[in-house]
């Protein structure tokens, strides 16, 4: 019972030396706090893959998050079904908890997707940087509206579950000598000449501003577990950034749910939009060596997926998701002492290979299409120009409430973080409206309240 109360503790409870509440209450409220937050609602107007004006059918970042939560619950249910007598059962997250983690995992997603993330990172490169996962923790621990100073204030375990990369942004960039030299380059005045990919942020879940909350979460583990869990190792990143190697038990479930949603549900949008022809699917998935060695479905699935019936397509997608979910199992990483770090969720080897193939297929034939990348690029320019103008004219352009935070900020770094938070919280629609109001001569009015 005492161990459970350690993980249901909220940061405000910790600061006030108040007792924690039972899990059945806390995790349900974690989920409710995420759902009712402004950051979660704004995901309905933030890009998943396709532009918001393409169609009402295609997924947004909100519907993606909801699908991740549903798949996450399905993964937990499957582990319960096959887990009779297994030691991990005592540490399996409840449905409320895993849904709270899954629903929260993209709260820090900025407008225009990864393009907006890169643009904000460039503008914040000398002020602590920007990274979507770190922004998620910032919303949970600082910006969210549920408490005056501590954000949405989720439980310790829910906060741990969202930490995909438990390392500080500054610690990662500090160890990259090439990036440090890059930071000395003069600021680009014409953003159209900026080589965006050079400013991809490192994979990090923590800004230095959230150190106190991060330390509170980590204090539940012994020193050896903390050191290993937060250790930075070389990665395959072409920018040379290191990243953390390990994830917590709940995070592994959430990440599998996220991968399934990305590789399969986003595939559905691509097929429905006729961006992926049947012949390409057969060549690069059905006839791929990995699939031939692990045939998880037959040609009937292809016929359903590419049928003219939306019901057939939906049935195929549902079956694919079911195949992945039913393959989940739990391993133990014995280098860790604590069960929440020792237990790890995995998909079956064959299922994981095929899921990676599906993710690569979506990335190659959808994400990186010039038609998609051009819209991402357009969004980047909007974010860059907005930031440039707000930085130069904060008193005139920032909303009064935001400008009050800017004035009260204790340093230049803190002031720039206020601007970054403001833009990161924008939807695609809001950012486009503000850009049009500021820079399009025929757009905007004093009655057009932002």
UniProtKB/TrEMBL annotation:
SMART domains: HDc (SM00471)
Keyword Hydrolase recorded: yes
InterPro entries, A to Z: dGTPase (IPR006261), dGTPase-like (IPR050135), dNTPase_2 (IPR023023), HD/PDEase_dom (IPR003607), HD_domain (IPR006674), PHydrolase_assoc_dom (IPR026875)
HD domain boundaries: 61-263
GO BP annotations, alphabetical order: dGTP catabolic process
Source superkingdom: Bacteria
Keyword list, A-Z: Hydrolase
Entry's Gene Ontology molecular function annotations: dGTPase activity
Pfam family membership, one: HD_assoc
Listed NCBIfam families: antiphage_dGTPase, dGTP_triPase, PRK05318.1
Similarity comment: family membership: Belongs to the dGTPase family. Type 2 subfamily.
Protein name: Deoxyguanosinetriphosphate triphosphohydrolase-like protein
Organism: Thiosulfativibrio zosterae
């Amino acid at each position: 019972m005492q161990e459970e109360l350690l993980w249901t503790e909220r940061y405000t409870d910790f600061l006030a030396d108040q007792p924690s509440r039972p899990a059945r209450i806390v995790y349900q409220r974690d989920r409710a706090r995420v759902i009712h937050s402004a950051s979660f609602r704004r995901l309905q107007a933030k890009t998943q893959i396709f532009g918001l004006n393409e169609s009402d059918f295609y997924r947004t970042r909100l519907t993606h998050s909801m699908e991740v939560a549903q798949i996450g619950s399905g993964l937990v249910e499957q582990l319960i079904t096959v887990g009779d007598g297994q030691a991990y059962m005592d540490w399996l997250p409840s449905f409320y908890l895993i849904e709270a983690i899954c629903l929260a995992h993209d709260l820090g997603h900025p407008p225009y997707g990864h393009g907006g993330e890169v643009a904000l990172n460039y503008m914040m490169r000398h002020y602590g940087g920007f990274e979507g996962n770190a922004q998620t923790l910032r919303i949970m621990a600082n910006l969210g509206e549920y408490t005056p100073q501590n954000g949405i204030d989720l439980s310790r375990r829910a906060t741990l579950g969202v930490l995909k990369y438990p390392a500080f942004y500054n610690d990662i960039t500090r160890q990259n000598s090439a990036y440090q030299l890059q930071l000395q380059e003069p600021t680009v005045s014409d953003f159209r000449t900026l080589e965006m990919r050079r400013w991809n942020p490192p994979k990090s879940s923590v800004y230095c501003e959230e150190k106190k909350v991060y330390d509170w979460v980590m204090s539940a583990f012994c020193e050896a577990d903390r050191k290993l869990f937060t250790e930075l190792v070389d990665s395959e990143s072409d920018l040379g950034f290191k990243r953390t190697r390990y994830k917590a038990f709940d995070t592994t479930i959430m990440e599998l749910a996220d991968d399934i949603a990305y590789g399969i549900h986003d595939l559905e949008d691509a097929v429905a939009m006729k961006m992926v022809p049947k012949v390409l699917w057969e060549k690069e998935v059905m006839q791929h060596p990995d699939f031939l060695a692990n045939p998880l479905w037959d040609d009937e699935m292809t016929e359903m997926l590419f049928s003219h019936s939306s019901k057939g397509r939906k049935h195929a997608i549902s079956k694919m998701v079911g195949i992945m979910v039913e393959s989940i199992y739990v391993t133990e990483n014995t280098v860790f002492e604590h069960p929440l770090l020792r237990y790890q969720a995995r998909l079956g080897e064959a299922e994981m290979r095929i899921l990676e193939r599906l993710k690569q297929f979506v990335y190659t034939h959808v994400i990186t299409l010039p038609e998609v990348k051009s819209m991402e690029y357009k969004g980047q320019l909007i974010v860059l120009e907005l930031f440039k103008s707000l930085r130069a004219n904060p008193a005139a352009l920032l909303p009064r409430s935001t400008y009050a935070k800017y004035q009260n900020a204790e340093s230049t770094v803190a002031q720039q973080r206020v601007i970054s938070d403001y833009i990161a919280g924008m939807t695609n629609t809001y950012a486009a409206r503000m850009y049009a109001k500021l820079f399009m001569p025929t757009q905007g009015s004093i009655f057009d309240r932002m």
